[in-house]
Amino acid sequence: MIIKKEVKPKKEKRKVSTKFAGILAIISITGFLEIILTRFFEITITAYSAFLWLLIMGFGFIIVSKPKSLYMASKKKFDETSFSRLTTLVLGVIAIAAAILSLPFVNVNHPILSASMGIISIIAIIFIIVQTWIIRE
Which of 101, 105, 108 is nearest to 58 (CA)? Predict the structure, then answer.
């Protein structure tokens, strides 16, 4: 008599990187900290909030792009994955530059800076949607 084991179908796991989830958590904590400081202690950091958000997003994009492995891949073979990582790296650098330019004491108020901040935010939202709901193993 042969006994067969029932094989349960595997559930599809999401392929969200833990680094990306950590960056999202830091952005959430920063927003929560801003609300707490403003409401309870009447300390406003709104002048620095754009800087904080862009800086965290920039470093997040750079971390997710894996610059070390991108550099190694550029020596061997540059494929679609490498290109998407390179785009993410460039976006991270632009976000950090926009963060520095948005500091109150630097005070660069230019339409190009506002446009780049908006574009970075839109791309970040798209990145969140793709990482969270679309990409699966």
Answer: 101
